[in-house]
Structure formats: structure tokens, C-alpha cells
């Protein structure tokens, strides 16, 4: 028999080890899944985790894609991590991502075809504001009426999706798009296009913003009083209030940061990798970023690795879909398992497993 | 006569600390046996082993002459061992009967149970109405619910952990009567308390633990409280000396403060008015739950009040939050150490930063000065004799008394002009309590004003210049502590008028 025993202090080693353990468990469970589907599990795991990085045939395409996919995940997850540390649960980053893309994209398209170096920065700002304002709705409702931010922010995702549909069939529909529900292509508008800075690297402007966000988040969390207040608010709300932290301001700031970052990520995505606003634009980054945030232990460095890993499962999953014809849903199952195992092994941080031999008498 | 419960060689080690080291003693049937020791001496671990919450690494227990090794509390209860915890495990929103039913293995139907509750409570003088909502009960009444719950299981042995810390002196009398009655009927009682005077009058034997070991036994009625305390600590105690001084100008004033409690089971404050002067220690007595928490929140700035209702050095501060008040020199230490005064999962240096950030100047452009913060935490640890391996240990890892010293030290080292503290020595051992009281008196001697909210009347009499009683949200007029008797205060606490004393 096994027995769980509370550790005297949470294990620092386990904080680092449990994400790795979760990945290993996901590989094993995923392998079993593929075996049941009649595929060679070792080949499937290799295609998902190894080939995108090291297979010479595909790596020239997949390596840059890794950055392109990881950047929005990391950016959004960083924003979410502040709220999650403070027990403020923004589940609607997907909606803020979409609204950022719409707001920033609309500002750019309004200037079409004027060319200026100021247009893109303006669009980034508008994207951030779009996401910020969208996140302010659950913030306001929580502060004013104590409405549950999980429900409000989640429901606002679907509002945002429908708003996107209305925009691309209405005011933002491309005049040259043959009546398809899409906006103008940003790659036809140089001032608003977020292209690759160096060909075949995947490097675009958004990645620098991601990098800056990682560094700033790290400093804020570890060394700034704001990070301290967020952590205290999450761990012991009454102690936080006693130390002078205003809970309402914390709610507004945390939702604001995550909304702003998600909005910016949306803008970089729509003007670059996606290329245009369309009803196909939402890819679920805002939801996947929730997994990234937890897999990265709400720590900026951890989130960076987790974002890269999650991007790998996206790309590897596509490869597996293509080469082994596994169903598209299997990659989502994969990502789901990752969060599932992460939450499950999390218990090892505060508990340890003991053999309960002697004590059963 | 064979012992009811016989412990021999009980040892339990946790990583880095031996909580119990070869503990042996016997409890006779019907004996009231006291377990004494400082915080962290291993009392809790020992009773947890008897109650099946923790299993010993080695050693044996015998109950009725048979081997006894309960794997869980249910087994201990089945063998006739019951326990009343220091912290009650009751649901506010359920009735007394429902709460009792929830805690029973095979609870009878409600009508039967209600009848049993009335019968048992009548028999032992523990008046309790089974239909009342627990949230509406006083702490003393809640304890009765817990005791009745135990008694319904016909225990042979009852463990009580700090039972009197929440009771008025009159309620303590009732409790002792009940315990003596149980003892006469043959039930043994293992009684844990810091209140040595109570142990003297109640208990027949005492076992003293220090650092996990049995360091002595005594017959309490042959000892003095001081001699028992010294056995616990292993050294001589210093008794704080109160010097009555003349008081200076009013520093903190509350004027006609009404505050509605945000807690549905809390107590709203009514018309609170008093002035606190330089060099004065004002003791606020009363049973917990009579508005103490609300008063604390209003003074600390966690709850805002009309601006003029609270004045500090002549300035209206009722609308200022905690930090502006700290800046002005008004510091507070709330009752609940873990979760309110300190964040349990944060290190001591982070907890030093929690309230010290402003007055100790621990930030620079919003960045935390790590070295200065650690130095402040170390200063607290050294000056207030907080026993911990270092500043980076979690607050949770400290024993109650050590954390309390840390919390009090953190505020006192910030040199407050007015210091308000709720239950400064609650659950703290005699030596630590003496240190804390000494620190409070030193503070007042140096000109600060101190407001001490406490349920411990002896403590209030020992350190206060003036005493007022908080009862159902109303504060009596402060009167000089000199010459007042515990009985008089006790009567005021119970809500009974004592106009003509």
C-alpha cells in the first residue's frame, strides 16, 4: 500500500521535476492511445516530439514554425500567470486575443493604403487596448457585482467570435475578397504587415515583444512589489489586505495585463502568420495558453519552455496527422492529457509517497 | 488498579525534529491528567498519536491493558477515546443537532438524537438548544456542542486541547464542574492548557514535556503556577513589571464608531468611543466574537469608516487604508497569525516585508530591496528570540508561539506611536508570553500608546493601565485596572450589569 504524507515544506525539486514527469506520463499514455488506434506508438511519439526539431526533411519548415506558434502562447500565458497567482481566473484570453486582432487590424485597415512607419506601432497599441478593454468587462463586473470572472470571461470568448464574424462579413470585409468573409490581406499592405524579419526563421516583431514580456514578467514577479502583492493576494487574501493591497485594484490590473498581452498577441498573429481576419482566425491559442501557464508553473522561465513544448505538440501533431493519418482530435487529447497529468502530479510538491508497510498492523 | 491508558516509549520523529522522544506515562481511570509544555514541546503530536491521527515510529500504548494502536480517529473513538480540539470543527449554517449528527459514526434519526442531546446536556449541566444555528452561538456554547458530541459516544477517555482559551471565567467554572462529574463517573481526562492556575485547581497529576521528552511529573496542587512554568521552560521566568505612569496627549481616538460587520455571523460595532494616550496600555477584554475582529479591522484600515470616527494625532483617518496609517505610526497585529498577520506559505523575510515595506523603507522605485528585507527579518528573529533556522523558512513552519513573537516583533521594531494588538499571547507558552508582554510594556514606557485586545483577563490585569470590556459590539467606559477584580470583569463580559461594584 502507498500512502501520501505531507511534506514539512513544499519540495523545490518537485516544482521543477513535476512538469517533466507530466510530459513523460503524457508520452506513455499517448503511446498507448496511438497503439489502440493501430499505429506504432514509438514512431508516433518520435514524429511528434523529435521530427519537428531534428528531422532534416521537415525541420527547415517546422523549426521556424515552432517560434511562430510558441510566441503567442507564451505571451498570453505570461499575462494569465499574474491573475492565476492572485486567484483571478481569466479563462477568456481567446476572446481578448480575437478582440486585440480586430481592434489592431481595424486601425491598420482604416489607414489603407497610406504607408507610414507609425502605422504598425499604432496597430500594436490598438491591439493591446482592444484586449485590455475586453478583459475590463469581467473585471468591472467582478469588482462591482462580484460576478464570477471565470464565467464572464469565458462567455465573452463566444461574443468575440461572433463579433469577429460580424466584422468580416460587414465593415472589415475585403473589397477585393470576392465577398468571402475575410478582411484585406495584411501582406498586401506593407505598413501593416508583420512579416518575417529574416527569411525562414519565423522571427517576427511579436517574438521580440514576447521576449520583452518574459523579462519584464520575471522582474515584476521576483523583484517588484507588484509581484509580491499578486502572490500574497493569491496565497492569503486577508494577509494581503492587511498589508494594504487593494483587492479590487489587483483584479483590474491582473485582468488588464492578461487582456493587453493577449490582444497584442492577437494583433501580431493576424498581421503575420494568419495574414488576415477571417472566421477561421481563432485557433484556440487563448485556451492552450492556460495549459502553458500551468505547465510552466506560472513562472516566466517555465512558461517559455512550456510554450515551446506546446508549440511542438501542435506542429508534431500536424506531422503525425499527415504522416500517420491519426485523427486531428488526437493532438487535442494530447494537450489535454498534458494538463491532466500536470495537475495530477502536482500533489508531489506538497506530499510525498510513502510505503505504508510497517504502520498497517 | 491497572491504568486506563498506558504509554511507553512513544517516539515520533519528523524530518529535522524529534516531536516525541521516549514518552511514557500512565493515566488512571477517572483521573484528570494535565499535559504541560511549551509550544513545540510535543503535546499535540502526543495526543494526535493517542487519537489515531499520527502513528508513532516506535513505542506502545495500552488501553484497558490491551495493545492500542488506532490507525485512524474512527478506531480511537470506537475504543472510547474522544477529543475536543482547540479549533472547533462545526458548520455555522447548520443547527446544533445537525452538526452533532455529522460527526457521529451511526447517527440516530433526528428526533432520537435531539432527545439524547437534551438528556446528556442536562445531565452534565451543558445547557444547549439542539435547534439553534451554530453560527449564532458564542464560543463557549460551541465548545459545549463539541463536548456533547463526544459525550454521546460514552468515552472512557476525553482529550481536551486548550479548552478554556475562549471561555469567560463563569463558563470555565461550568466546564470544570462537568469535567469533575465525568471524572467521578470514571472517565479519564487528558487536559492540555497553558493556564497553570486552572491546572492547579482541576488536575490531579501533570506530566511535563520539554523538547519532546518527559522532563518531570508533579501534583499540580502542591506546586505554584510559577514553579510549573519553570519546569516547562527549564529556567527561571521573568515576570513583567508594570510601572504606572502619567499619560500624555491622546494619540488615537475613536468617536461614536458604528460599523456593520461584513461577516454574517460577525458582530457589528456600536457607538465605540475611547481615547488612547501616550504611554497608556488600554486593555480590551471580552469573549471573542463580540466585535474584536471588527474593531481590529476598523483600526488597521482594512475596513473603512466615516473619516472623523477614527482620529490619529488629531487627524481624521477613518478613510485611510492600512499603509497610510502605517506611515503615520499606527501599527497593528491581528489575532490570526497564519493567513492574516502572516502569509503561511511565504518566507519570514517576505512576511517581514508584508507590513514593514513602508516604515523600514524596503523598496526602491517599487523594487524590493532583498538584502535590507532579509536584514529586517533577521533583526526580528534575533531581538525577539524567534526560533527558526533562518529568514527563508516559511511562516507555516514556525510553531504558534514563535510566529507570534515574529509578528509582534515585526511591528514593535518599526517603532509604532500607537500599537494595537489582538490576542498577543493566545496559544503561546509561558516564556514567550512573558517576553511579549514585556515588549509591550517597554513600548508603552517609551511613550507609545498600546491597545491590547485579549480574552485572557490575567494578562489584561497584568499589563493594562485601564480596562474596558467589549460585549456584543459595545465598549464599556475604560476604568483603571488597579483594584478591579477578575470576577467583576467576568460579570461585565457575560453581559450582566455590574453597576454597583
Mind explaining what this structure looks like?
The complex is a heterodimer of chains A (361) and B (501). Chain A has 361 residues and is mainly α. Chain A has one domain (40-325): ABC transporter involved in vitamin B12 uptake, BtuC, CATH 1.10.3470. Helix content of chain A is 70%, strand content 3%. Chain A has helices at 12-36, 41-49, 51-54, 56-85, 93-111, 119-145, 149-169, 205-223, 225-235, 237-242, 247-271, 285-295, 300-324, 329-345, 347-350; strands spanning 2-6, 351-355. Chain A has a two-stranded antiparallel sheet with strand order 1-2. The longest helix of chain A is centred in the first third of the chain and has 30 residues, at 56-85. Chain A is globular. Chain B has 501 residues and is of the alpha/beta class. Chain B has two domains: 5-233, 3-Layer(aba) Sandwich (Rossmann fold); 250-493, Rossmann fold. Helices cover 33% and strands 24% of the residues of chain B. Chain B is built from 16 helices and 23 strands. Chain B has helices at residues 43-50, 73-78, 96-102, 110-123, 139-151, 169-184, 196-202, 225-233, 292-300, 322-328, 348-356, 370-383, 400-412, 430-445, 457-463, 486-493; strands spanning 5-14, 17-27, 32-37, 58-63, 66-67, 81-84, 157-161, 188-192, 205-210, 213-218, 250-259, 269-277, 281-285, 310-312, 315-316, 330-333, 363-364, 367-368, 418-422, 449-453, 466-471, 474-475, 479-480. In chain B, strands 13, 16, 19, 20, 21, 22 and 23 form a seven-stranded mixed beta sheet that branches. In chain B, strand 19, helix 14 (430-445) and strand 20 (449-453) form a beta-alpha-beta unit. In chain B, helix 11 packs across helix 12, helix 12 (370-383) packs across helix 13 (400-412) and helix 13 packs parallel to helix 14. Chain B is globular, with a radius of gyration of 23 Å. The termini of chain B are far apart. The model of chain B is unreliable at 495-501 (pLDDT under 50). The chains are: A mainly alpha (361), B alpha/beta (501).
